[in-house]
Design brief:
697 residues, 59% helix, two-stranded antiparallel ribbon, 8 strands, Rossmann fold, 34 helices, six-stranded mixed sheet, mainly alpha, globular
Length: 697
């Protein structure tokens, strides 16, 4: 591949200069910048430190996890978790229809509709998992606006941010699982009144759901205590009133006691499969099978086996046996602490350990779907119920060896690391402090494998609405004043599940981290690239991220940065521009230009800034030529190249555009016939001529 010649001597300076105070302004955190610019909506505005192979594995696992976990298959032993929802996005019409296809109005729904219409603002307050998200979506539908007018805002936006939000006419805003800022009650009522008035002025609406047990009296005009819908009516809506399972009084009584709409939906889905009786499904859903097993006071060896499976689920039997022996050894060592070590003679009898899960055990079994036998739980929800009962029934004698053992597993095989993360994500639902103090905090500052496991755990926590906010808060606590290893761990986490749940915040914080010290910057830059590679596989999420990245780059370089920070910023952008699609050697930007034509605008802006800079121009030209080559023989190639060129020449100053155009013409022109496949001259001319027409106007 031919390298472009050095730019002429009259080229612009390599990096813009900035005064010291300007550099400090560029180092401001995303939260500080948002407060300084309240009118800008956030979502629309050394080798040993980075194991690239391991991170690629992590990314693949996270991507597959979010895409494939199902209650029926219990792929990771975390049934019923579904997929992670982004908290800053437009609510898709298909998603609204899917959420409401079997909707049953809960008590208080009509009153909530009245409050929303009269006050423009309503807050649904209630416990977790009672259907507030679906009810909030149903309330949005009552406004009768097109789906593209529904905007989901981040739950981290406090009252001050909401007051500063420029609400747009006829828009409907939704904040699910709002993180209550706990301001003083009198001020809270005043703020809600002010917010209601601003929404009315903008002719907009806002629905908020809040996980809290009680309704506060001061803002009662806006808050309404929420209850789940009638479970029997919800089940009827899913399976029909004539389903055989609903004819049994025992089943109907059990269903009527369920307060979780999600459990009812899972029951309906499994009844539709027709392979199990309703009583057996309900026993798994409410945990009675697991509770009965623990109530039988199982032997120590059985408890350790079940506990081990909760954190090492679905791995090959031979690996699980090795890990279980290690856990037992740790437990023996802790039990003997303070006493003389006893030596046990080697006897002739061997324990039949595999008999435990190969003899129709009520909780543990094996699966051969993946070839060799793998140890699994028998029920889709057994794993989470086992973790809950371990917390309720046992203390130091079980949990101390588990802590030591799980911490060791961070150095195990990638498959084991992912299962550890999944187990800890379940534990975080009931014991978030335990997960943070015993595992995440020491791992975040540890070795590379430990940091990857910590990042994986935060990603798994993003699947659950209740723990997603905890995961984000944990990552943010590692960003500043916590040490370089912790900041690098935060960068890895923002490239994983956090980028799905909080896409705007992930781009913001990875951009900020990419401007930090060299070690943190290297990890953050690669994590930013991985974020876009994975986002490209999920509808138009890459387009949203590219627009935000372009806004960061234009603002920061436009205001002025030190040469060092400018170089890191442009290196981060170049990493994205020259990246390939996941599991493919095809340029990512070429695919986005063809599949999502609006992406030409932000991609063109990013390329213009890298081409403007003399230090990075040669690399930017090489990446651009490779992208143009990938467009060849694709439908829409000429239109994509022309759209990209139009943005580049519009963004670049006239004098610089002449130099850049010359560099592209020279670099690409010398390779028309030398690449395999050759670079089509027409595609390059489409890009260059877009600028030529502009210059002639």
């Amino acid at each position: 591949m031919t390298t472009a010649e050095p730019p002429p001597a009259n080229d612009p300076p390599a990096e813009p200069l900035a005064e010291p105070e300007q550099e400090e302004r560029q180092r401001a955190t995303p939260d500080e910048r948002q407060r300084a610019n309240p009118d800008e909506p956030p979502a629309e505005r050394a080798d040993e430190d980075f194991d690239e192979g391991a991170l690629g594995q992590t990314a693949t696992v996270i991507n597959n996890f979010f895409a494939e976990v199902q209650a029926q298959k219990a792929t990771f032993g975390m049934a019923g978790t579904g997929t992670a929802r982004s908290t800053s996005r437009r609510l898709d019409e298909k998603e609204i229809h899917h959420a409401l296809r079997h909707f049953v109005r809960p008590p208080g729904f009509d009153r909530a509709v009245t409050i929303l219409r009269e006050r423009r603002l309503v807050v649904l307050v209630g416990g977790e998992g009672i259907g507030k998200w679906t009810s909030g979506t149903a309330l949005l539908a009552q406004v009768k606006l097109p789906a593209d007018k529904v905007v989901v805002l981040s739950p981290r936006r406090d009252l001050e941010d909401l007051l500063a939000t420029p609400f747009r006419k006829d828009r409907v805003y939704f904040i699910p699982d709002w993180i209550d800022d706990r301001v003083e009650k009198g001020l809270r009522r005043f703020t809600f009144d002010t917010l209601s008035a601003r929404l009315a002025q903008a002719e907009a609406h806002l629905v908020i759901t809040l996980n809290r047990a009680e309704v506060r009296f001061e803002p009662e005009a806006f808050e309404i205590g929420w209850e789940p819908p009638d479970s029997l009516k919800l089940l009827d809506a899913h399976v029909g009133t004539d389903h055989p399972a609903l004819s049994e009084a025992e089943v109907r009584e059990h269903v009527a006691a369920l307060r979780s709409p999600q459990r009812v939906v899972e029951l309906a889905e499994q009844l539709a499969g027709g392979t199990r009786h309703a009583r057996d499904i309900l026993a798994d859903l409410d945990g009675s099978t697991v509770i009965q097993w623990f109530d039988g006071e199982p032997k120590r060896s059985e408890v350790l086996a079940v506990a081990a499976l909760a954190f090492a689920y679905g791995i090959p039997e031979r690996v699980f046996e090795r890990l279980l022996v290690r856990l037992t050894s740790i437990a023996d060592e802790i039990e003997r602490q303070g006493a003389e070590r006893e030596t046990r003679p080697i006897g002739e009898d061997l324990p039949q350990s595999r008999k435990l899960w190969n003899s129709r055990h009520s909780l543990i079994g094996t699966s051969t779907e993946a070839g060799e036998p793998r140890v699994v739980f028998c029920g889709p929800r057994h794993r989470e119920h086992v973790i809950t009962q371990l917390c309720l029934y046992y203390g130091y004698e079980v949990w101390e060896p588990l802590r030591e053992w799980v911490r060791e597993l961070a150095g195990e095989l990638p498959e084991v690391q992912v299962q550890v993360a999944a187990g800890l994500a379940l534990l975080a639902r009931t014991r978030p402090e335990e997960v943070g103090e015993s595992f995440l905090r020491p791992w975040a500052g540890g070795l590379v494998q430990e940091r990857l496991t910590a990042a994986n755990t935060l990603s798994m926590m993003c699947v659950d609405d209740a723990t997603a906010a905890i995961a984000l808060g944990t990552a943010l606590s590692w960003v500043e004043n916590a040490g370089q290893p912790q900041a690098m761990t935060a960068a890895l986490a923002f490239a994983g599940g956090l980028s799905i749940r909080y896409p705007g915040e992930a781009v913001d914080w990875l951009w900020y981290l990419s401007l930090r010290g060299i070690r943190v910057s290297n990890v953050a830059q690669r994590a930013l690239t991985l974020l876009f590679q994975t986002a490209a596989e999920r509808d138009d999420e890459a387009l949203t991220g590219l627009r935000l990245l372009a806004k960061h780059l234009e603002r920061d370089l436009g205001e002025g940065m030190s040469p060092q920070l400018a170089r890191r910023a442009l290196e981060a952008v170049l990493g994205v521009l020259r990246s390939d699609r996941l599991e493919s050697e095809r340029p990512l930007m070429a695919w986005l230009l063809l599949s999502q034509p609006p992406s030409a605008e932000p991609i063109g802006v990013l390329w213009a800034w890298t081409l403007h800079n003399a230090h990075h121009r040669a690399e930017a030209v090489r990446a651009l030529c490779r992208t143009l080559q990938a467009l060849e023989e694709q439908d829409g190639a000429l239109a994509a190249a022309e759209a990209l060129g139009r943005v580049i020449w519009t963004t670049l100053p006239g004098g610089v555009a002449v130099l850049v155009r010359r560099a592209i013409d020279r670099a690409c022109g010398e390779t028309y016939a030398r690449w395999d496949p050759p670079l089509a001259k027409e595609i390059v001319l489409a890009l260059l001529n877009a600028g030529a027409r502009r210059s002639q106007q």
